[in-house]
């Protein structure tokens, strides 16, 4: 049997890890998990799975009172934010955002991609009690957006991926700030203050050569920081962000390399499955909550308009002399359409915004999935057309 065929039938550990790090396959896993959750929630197994999600797994001696669903959103998802923060730090220090000039276009584009969808949502949703869902359509899913680009973007210049990555990273930073500022109900200062020296110690130890005992200590400090942030009332994923930002680059890079496949295989699919575990509302289309329509419109339309308009303005501002714009409008449209895929972070925002109203949260979840799928379809069409144009131009040259 040829070696290549053996690698397909019996993939090596390296082959499996390469598969799990692939942007396109991680996007497929994410979508499949969400589809499975939505389908199962609307079968006979749905009530049992929902009950399991809402079952409390308390640790009374530590004062932890979390359901299975909250262990996923507050616990597992902290790993995702930890890895996102490592990538953010890399981009800010050595990547596409390491200077004010490089950061200008993606920063302005990201702000436009937050402000316009929020405005669209608020124009549709007039009920003051429901308007706290405005952050839901402001997020961009890095894994999903890059996955779509990897699948249909063959032939596109590397600058498009670089802009999308930079925009999505800044978008995540804005999302982190929104979570910290708007979804913290009862702040307990003491645990939060105690978390600060723990995070600083984590950063200091990460600057030493990684060894078995030090790795174990870093894990222990990371768990302790997560626990303290959880007890403070701030959303526990913020602990993952703080640890990822302060971790020494020489330790953070191999840590991200080692953890990324497991995040793609377990963390994100489990979260997508749990978040999508909602029964379709038994109401006619005209009786759906304004939240549903606000999200469905704001994700594909608000993101497309906001990112395109802001990036177009930013590229004009960044011109020097009579030199043409460094980013053609067609490239901007590709990035803007991909930016409308909210998914993971939008689902988290929905959970946080409507935690006390399961019915509205269910409609919000469906709206996030539908809005992200509409954005994905638009992105696939625009990206395919743009990639075909670049491939045709390359053949001519």
UniProtKB/TrEMBL annotation:
GO cellular component entries: plasma membrane
UniProt keywords, alphabetically: Antiport, Cell membrane, Ion transport, Membrane, Sodium, Sodium transport, Transmembrane, Transmembrane helix, Transport
Database matches in InterPro entries: Na/H_antiporter_dom_sf, NhaA
Record's bilayer topology term: Multi-pass membrane protein
Major location (coarse): membrane
Cellular compartment(s): Cell inner membrane; Cell membrane
Molecular functions (GO terms): sodium:proton antiporter activity
Pfam families the record matches: Na_H_antiport_1 (PF06965)
Record field: transmembrane: 61-83, 103-124, 136-156, 163-182, 188-205, 212-229, 235-253, 265-285, 291-315, 327-349, 361-385
Gene3D superfamilies named among the record's database cross-references: Na+/H+ antiporter like domain
Known catalytic reactions: Na(+)(in) + 2 H(+)(out) = Na(+)(out) + 2 H(+)(in)
Any single biological process term in GO: regulation of pH
Family note: Belongs to the NhaA Na(+)/H(+) (TC 2.A.33) antiporter family.
Function: Na(+)/H(+) antiporter that extrudes sodium in exchange for external protons.
Official protein name in the record: Na(+)/H(+) antiporter NhaA
Primary gene name: nhaA
């Amino acid at each position: 049997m040829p070696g290549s065929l053996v690698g397909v039938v019996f993939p090596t550990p390296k082959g499996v890890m390469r598969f799990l790090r692939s942007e396109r396959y991680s996007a497929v896993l994410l979508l499949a998990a969400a589809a499975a959750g939505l389908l199962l929630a609307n079968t006979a197994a749905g009530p049992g799975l929902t009950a399991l999600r809402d079952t409390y797994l308390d640790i009374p001696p530590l004062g932890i009172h979390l359901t299975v669903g909250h262990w996923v959103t507050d616990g597992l998802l902290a790993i995702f934010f930890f890895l996102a923060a490592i990538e953010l730090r890399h981009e800010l220090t050595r990547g596409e955002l390491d200077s004010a000039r490089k950061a200008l276009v993606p920063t302005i584009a990201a702000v436009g991609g937050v402000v316009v969808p929020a405005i669209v949502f608020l124009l549709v949703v007039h009920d003051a009690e429901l308007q706290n869902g405005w952050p839901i359509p402001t997020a961009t899913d890095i894994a999903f957006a890059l996955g779509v680009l990897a699948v249909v973007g063959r032939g596109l210049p590397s600058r498009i991926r670089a802009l999308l990555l930079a925009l999505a990273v800044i978008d995540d930073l804005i999302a982190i700030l929104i979570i910290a500022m708007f979804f913290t109900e009862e702040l307990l200062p003491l645990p939060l203050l105690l978390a600060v020296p723990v995070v600083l110690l984590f950063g200091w130890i990460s600057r030493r050569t990684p060894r078995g005992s030090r790795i174990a200590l870093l894990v222990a400090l990371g768990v302790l920081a997560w626990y303290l942030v959880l007890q403070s009332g701030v959303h526990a994923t913020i602990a993952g962000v703080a640890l990822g930002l302060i971790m020494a680059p020489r330790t953070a890079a191999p840590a991200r390399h080692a953890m990324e496949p497991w995040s793609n295989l377990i963390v994100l699919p489990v979260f997508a499955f749990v978040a999508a575990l909602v029964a379709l509302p038994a109401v006619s289309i005209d009786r759906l909550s304004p939240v549903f329509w606000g999200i469905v419109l704001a994700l594909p339309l608000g993101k497309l308009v906001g990112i395109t308009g802001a990036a177009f303005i930013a590229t004009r501002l960044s011109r020097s002399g009579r030199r043409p714009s460094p980013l053609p409008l067609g490239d901007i449209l590709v990035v803007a359409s991909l930016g409308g895929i909210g998914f993971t972070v939008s689902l988290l925002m929905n959970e946080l915004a409507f935690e006390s109203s399961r019915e509205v949260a269910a409609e919000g979840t469906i709206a996030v999935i539908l809005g992200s799928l509409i954005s994905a379809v638009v992105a696939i069409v625009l990206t395919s057309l743009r990639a075909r144009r670049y491939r045709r131009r390359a053949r001519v040259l």
